[in-house]
Amino acid sequence: MMLSLEGDRPLDLVTLGRACIDLNAYDYNQPLERTKTFVKYVGGSPANIAIGARRLGLRTGMIAKVSDDAMGRFVVNFLKEVGVDTSGIVVDHDGHKTGLAFTEIKSPTECSILLYRDEVADLYLSPGEIHEDYLRKSKILLISGTALSRSPSREAAFYAAEVARKHGTRIVFELDYRAYTWKSKYEPMVYYTLMARLADVVIGTRDEYDVMEGGRGQDEVTASQLLAYAPSIVVIKHGVDGSVAYTKDAVVRAQAFHAKVLKTFGAGDAYASGLLYGLISGATLERALALASAAAAIVVGRHSSSEAMPSLEEVESFMNESRER
Amino acid sequence: MMLSLEGDRPLDLVTLGRACIDLNAYDYNQPLERTKTFVKYVGGSPANIAIGARRLGLRTGMIAKVSDDAMGRFVVNFLKEVGVDTSGIVVDHDGHKTGLAFTEIKSPTECSILLYRDEVADLYLSPGEIHEDYLRKSKILLISGTALSRSPSREAAFYAAEVARKHGTRIVFELDYRAYTWKSKYEPMVYYTLMARLADVVIGTRDEYDVMEGGRGQDEVTASQLLAYAPSIVVIKHGVDGSVAYTKDAVVRAQAFHAKVLKTFGAGDAYASGLLYGLISGATLERALALASAAAAIVVGRHSSSEAMPSLEEVESFMNESRER
Amino acid sequence: MMLSLEGDRPLDLVTLGRACIDLNAYDYNQPLERTKTFVKYVGGSPANIAIGARRLGLRTGMIAKVSDDAMGRFVVNFLKEVGVDTSGIVVDHDGHKTGLAFTEIKSPTECSILLYRDEVADLYLSPGEIHEDYLRKSKILLISGTALSRSPSREAAFYAAEVARKHGTRIVFELDYRAYTWKSKYEPMVYYTLMARLADVVIGTRDEYDVMEGGRGQDEVTASQLLAYAPSIVVIKHGVDGSVAYTKDAVVRAQAFHAKVLKTFGAGDAYASGLLYGLISGATLERALALASAAAAIVVGRHSSSEAMPSLEEVESFMNESRER
Amino acid sequence: MMLSLEGDRPLDLVTLGRACIDLNAYDYNQPLERTKTFVKYVGGSPANIAIGARRLGLRTGMIAKVSDDAMGRFVVNFLKEVGVDTSGIVVDHDGHKTGLAFTEIKSPTECSILLYRDEVADLYLSPGEIHEDYLRKSKILLISGTALSRSPSREAAFYAAEVARKHGTRIVFELDYRAYTWKSKYEPMVYYTLMARLADVVIGTRDEYDVMEGGRGQDEVTASQLLAYAPSIVVIKHGVDGSVAYTKDAVVRAQAFHAKVLKTFGAGDAYASGLLYGLISGATLERALALASAAAAIVVGRHSSSEAMPSLEEVESFMNESRER
Question: Which residues are in the Carbohydrate kinase PfkB domain (chains A, B, C, D) (predicted)?
Fold first, then answer.
């Protein structure tokens, strides 16, 4: 096993960051301005990962801040229904809203998102709302990079990382870069770098690492610079060209599976779910990457990002079928 | 005719204020947090009034600011399609979004709205975006009270009123109070009072006049205080109990029509459309109020507020049928 | 008497707006960046006018918001010492500071001010801090235009004007334009126009009226437009070229006195003090303007704006001496 | 020598953070609200340290942002006059002001400061204004903790630290905690901890380390926690009870000198100047702490914090005299 974990804790994984609403075009293959009907799903990368990892069999929970309205209640209710622990979720009482993402699916390769993220509740998560006890209950804390984009959520994330380290809770940092809420190119450079060096596992696309480094970088350099600090695994994703994981001793590469693509959203969240399932269940890094890639390939063929998360059976049967082809 | 209008102008009515998106629950009679499917419509009181008055046969236009995205384009395209002049609409280039209203229709009498109005484009309409030429083209400028809730839209509305007065364009002030964007109870008191005294016609519900006056008021007092300034007609609405119009010489009362109510949204906008159609077409005040009430009664039975606006034929046939019952 | 006043009230004049700190260069005739020593005085136009009118013999008070620190206490203590009623002054408990003005006196004709007015306490005066009883106690309420430059002070000023009118307290509007805190050229146009039309007396320099009108205007036009609303006296100042007052029936002009000029600050505040003393004491408009001009001529030869305010004896003796020359 | 430095660089020390104005009461021993006359000095901890270290003979420079007005020009001119390199100082063109500190000296033990630091220019220093070349020119970069209190100055400081490390420029972190500009107790906890672990030398009072740790701590624990990361020297100050420096191998304690105290301001800045002079000139840690303590003891007996900084001769003669007593 690549990542030594504290045993015997009631939760395998707690994710920290946004829990939002996706409003997915019901009729796709047309521009958003012509779309008339939308279907509402829970969304947001860390919420999707908590759901996806739960679907795969892990015991998961979430640290988040949601609005005190129908949208916030919808998010919490859905997480509860699928078995994600919501005792770490706080309700905002200052009128901040739950973020929205309207998805536009013009074609499988032309997907875009229209975000409503001004003054959203998740960015108002504050350090005082992070509970030491809750972090001590979980083997892993996953921090979403978007949580670093604004104060006080930014400080909440760093504070949670500090508390996690103190209690032996491993830290996974998912870069999860969304340009929208950052104020300058320097902000993600500074805070991604500080957080990545604190984490045990770092996951991101090549483009996201480039944002962190402030320019076009190379995988080996990125990995070796991070492995000089706390990280023991650095995962770099290249879309259809597969992904690669670096450790101090090894480099492991994984192919992307061929998939019938409906939209690209949610692929990264499914990937992280599969990877973490692998790492927590004690799989080899090779198998963890394969599980990650398979979960991603399944989600891109489905309409939502959260409800679409596959079960372990689905992932395994998908992997078997792919192997046979 | 109660309101003397400049003749021979290319537009009858220009409305100033928000043009937004309504996301109406597709399956009503359930709480919003359970609603999964939403249908998108153009919304916002002044947009609805421009649409409603156009449907009744007036030549209408709009002064508004919309987002530079699919939502803004949807709004402008819809207005164009139904024949509302959009040459007074400006596009925001600072990243502000078009406002959203999620409607919850639990039952005909339990309707509520969840608003996304943080930093919305319409409140960033600025005085420099008000064009004197455009105001000179119209017989009437209708100002929505919500435009007064924030700077610079607040100054844009007062500036537009000043320019309108200079060119003999009559001013209609629709109180259109939405608690959400105001910072204190004093703000609407101060700015509603200042604007109402500048207007030729003032339209609002009893509750809205109470907000303006800072306490429970009486119709005759409200009317006589305003008629001492510029207004020549003061219309006060009492929901199912009908409405009343005061002029310097007369008091005219109108019954509400019996209606099959689906939801209450949009009733006020249809009312204003009917009233303005009456005033502009030279009807008596009695008939103008009747047209207003009939248009309102039709809209409450339909799913949207904008697309549901009735034609003159529909209004007249509804009035005939009601009379026969 | 030009202005009918309610008799028998405990205060003659209450001024509303900023009470600040002037830090005047001790060694003048040099640029501010070389100045090492500063002397602290109370400043801010409405504070200076309350002090100046008191010095002339009126019973004056002030409605203001000051910081909860040594600067705020200094202001209140000084006002008390010179006999200005401070019971209408509230203390800010949200950490806002008292504004500062560093004066640079390079030469009698090259004076400039460096203002510290970000988030100052006076602009946080709110309508809920305006007491009806206090306004009912005074014959006149003077509103400083700078109070209109930001919310909630802006609403507080309009609310106070409304309450004053209700109780027969006359309203004097001193345009007092300071570019610093306004966000666009339209804001002073809109709010100065709205307030000037509500006032009984309007006082300003030609430049200030031009800001209000949005372009270069003419005295007679400015006056006639305002006299069509509530104002009964419109005073327009032309610096060394004298000043002129318009009423519905008359035009009265006054020469500026020859003065030994040290700096130009404070002249306008002394002018207003003298004018109001004249109006309240029942002088003719001619004599009121002469008192105003004499008070201004005295202050420009002294180091401060507040402590320099002359007594009635000083003003009268100055007028006599000037006449003899 | 405790700190290995890159040799042969044109500057010994560059400080990063605020360069402000102190307005010191001319007549002390009275409360600020009675003080009428103030004398203007350059102030701000990193400015004072650049000046103090220069006075001791080091070649120093500063990275700062100042206002585009007489105050900003005064600061830059003074730094130039005393020989501090100002080529790293940028001028703010967005209207932000230079911070002010009014000092109140009631008695030698009752000193307080009234700060004007809303929207000040120094907190608007941005990462794009940090020049790699400039950092490469200096042996040491000193970062003031106050620079971490707000964005974008916060990111500028972390970015500068990263660039410094890349070029072998040693990092000194002076905690310099001023409660005023921080928004919560968690912000300094999070950012002080992140920065302290990046630095080679950390300097602060016991109280400042307690702010960083979020509670009452102990010197040995504080030191050992930091020495596990980048720092090689951790200096903790205890006011009149002396100071202590921890390295991986040693603990060095220094007595405070007896001093005739006029006010307490500036002592910490003089201390840092003396310490850095010692470290850079290759003194033992014992002598560096003694130089630091002596410089501090001299400054507390003088009126300003910047102009009062002693020369090396003054420090040495003070140390000799103290020894003889």
Answer: 12-310
Give the whole-angstrom CA distance, residue A119 versus residue B288. Answer: 43
Q: Which residues of D touch A128 (CB under 8 A)?
A: 184, 186
**Closest C-alpha among A313, A315, A314 to residue A292:** A315
Contact B184 C159 (CB under 8 A): no
Interatomic CA distance for residues D31 and C294, integer angstroms = 37
Interface test with B, best of A103, A118, A119, A124 (most B CBs within 10 A): A118
Give D57 to chain C, closest Cα distance, Å. Answer: 26
Residue contact C33–D116, C-beta within 8 A? no
The tokens 């402008």 sit on which residue? B76
Residue C209 to residue C315: CA distance in whole angstroms: 28
pLDDT tens track for B168-199 = 999 999 999 999 889 999 999 999 999 999 99
Q: Do C193 and B155 touch (CB under 8 A)?
A: no
- Against chain A, the chains showing at least 3 CB pairs within 8 Å are B, D
- Are A189 and D159 inside 8 Å of each other by CB? yes
Residue C1 confidence (pLDDT) above 60: no
Mutate to test the interface with C, among B194, B195, B198, B229 (most CBs of C within 10 A): B194
pLDDT at B1: 46
Q: What is the pLDDT of residues C47-97, one digit of tens each?
A: 999 999 999 999 999 999 999 999 999 999 999 999 999 999 999 999 999
Residue B85: both structure tokens together: 């002049």
Q: Which residue of D has its CA nearest to C38?
A: D38
Question: ipTM of this predicted complex?
Answer: 0.95
3-state secondary structure of C170: strand
Q: In the predicted model, what is the mean pLDDT of chain D?
A: 95
The per-residue pLDDT for C3 is 86
CA A186 – CA D162 distance, rounded (Å): 12
Burial of C322 (0-12, 13-18, 19+ CB in 10 A): middle
Axis crossing angle, helix B206-213 with helix B186-198, rounded to the nearest 10: 110
Smallest CA–CA distance, residue C90 to chain D, in Å, is 17
Q: Are the Cβ atoms of C126 and B190 closer than 8 angstroms?
A: no
Interface test with D, best of C32, C40, C94, C97 (most D CBs within 10 A): C40
Quote the pTM value.
0.96
Q: Which of D37, D40, D183 is the best residue to mutate to test the C interface, defined by the most C CB atoms within 10 Å of its own CB?
A: D40
Q: What is the 3-state secondary structure (H, E, C) of chain B?
A: CCCCCCCCCCEEEEEECCCEEEEEECCCCCCHHHCCEEEEEEECHHHHHHHHHHHCCCCEEEEEEECCCHHHHHHHHHHHHCCCECCCEEECCCCCECCEEEEEEEECCEEEEEEECCCEHHHHCCHHHCCHHHHHCEEEEEEEHHHHHCCCHHHHHHHHHHHHHHCCCEEEEECCCCHHHCCCCHHHHHHHHHHHHHCCEEEEEHHHHHHHHCCCCCHHHHHHHHHCCCCCEEEEECHHHCEEEECCCCEEEECCCCCCCCCCCCHHHHHHHHHHHHHHCCCCHHHHHHHHHHHHHHHCCCCCCCCCCCCHHHHHHHHHHHHHC
Instruction: Show residues of chain C in contact with D78, CB under 8 Å.
Output: none
| Cross-chain Cβ contact C40/D36 below 8 Å | yes
Of C127, C186, C193, the CB nearest to B186: C127
Write down the domain spans for chain A: 11-17+45-95+124-324
Our CA-based measurement puts residue C227 at a distance from the nearest CA of chain D, in whole angstroms, of: 39
D74 and C33 within 8 Å at the Cβ level: the answer is: yes
Order of strands, edge to edge, in the sheet holding A37-43? A110-116, A100-107, A20-25, A37-43, B37-43, B20-25, B100-107, B110-116
Tokens of B241: 């109990």
